[in-house]
Amino acid sequence: MNKGHGANIFKYSKSGDLLDFSSNINPYGPTERVKKNIREHLDLIARYPDVSYGKLFDVLEKYLGVDKTHISLGNGAMEVIDATISLYENIVIFEPAFMEYEIRARVQKKNIKKINLDSSFKPNVHDLDFDLENTLVIITSPHNPSGVSLSKKEFDEIYEKVSNNGGAILMDEAFHEFSSVDYDLAKEISKYKNLFVVRAATKFFSLPGLRLGYLVSNFKNDIDNHIPTWSVSSLVENLGEDLLLDEEFIISSKAKLAKSRDKLFLELKKIDGIHPLPSDANYILIKTDFDNEMLFQNLLKKGILVRKCDNYANLGHQYIRVAVKKDEDNEKLLKALKEEKNGR
């Protein structure tokens, strides 16, 4: 299968000087506080991390609001997702979806069932009317690539269906910090025996180059048995409070990006041939009236990289996804799209 992702900027520019709307990273990070921590502790790269990750677990306990006995660490979200997949024989994937779910399930020779999402991009509980014994159902909220979030009621209906029929849910919340949902499944993990909640520092904390993923579940020992020793680096282990407990950064960047997203969405709607979908994340899925390859190449000539979505199941050649960046960069994208509409 096509393993294309966003953020492949060096494929299109050796210098990496493109304005990258293909990668959904918080443009306000990493903070100076994080950079200062890294600069002052570069000598840690010559040391193994603490095998128990005690300090990092203490910080995650505060940040997530859940006891550390429910938290597992990984070298990015995919490592804990991979470990969770390993616990089940059958994997259910709602499409379109992040393609690594299927890739990891195939590598582990799991039985895969794919279910197509309708235009709401929300799983339909009635699509799960089958035996779910020893089955992991993967859900994403906010959904990638649409940016749609599930309400608590919608999630609870799906969870009840899956759990009562012998299955479990992996809830990928890689973009949770950007969303406006009024519930927090990680904090409520004791109520959901058959739930795995995945988050990471990659997107919101702007740390894709230093991997840190974390999973909240009632199966910590089972997950940890599938995670290699020293999975998280010494540099990341030491970031702790400077990374995850900077409340000023968390509150301010979330508010600024939500405002920028809503503004970008409204401006995109004004452009003929551009049809953005409402989003609860830091990206917007757009259906266009023209082939995305032509649009992609024309924007590339203007120094702008967007995410083609033709390798997402069920989307096809009319969709692109764009990250929400700072207003001045969003204006450059809007200007380029308007020029495309006018044939320039």
From TrEMBL:
Name this protein carries in UniProt: L-threonine O-3-phosphate decarboxylase
A UniProt-annotated Pfam family: Aminotran_1_2
InterPro entries: Aminotransferase_I/II_large (IPR004839), PyrdxlP-dep_Trfase (IPR015424), PyrdxlP-dep_Trfase_major (IPR015421), PyrdxlP-dep_Trfase_small (IPR015422)
Domain Aminotransferase class I/classII large: 17-337
Molecular function GO terms recorded: catalytic activity; pyridoxal phosphate binding
SUPFAM superfamilies (UniProt xref): PLP-dependent transferases (SSF53383)
Gene3D superfamilies: Aspartate Aminotransferase, domain 1, Type I PLP-dependent aspartate aminotransferase-like (Major domain)
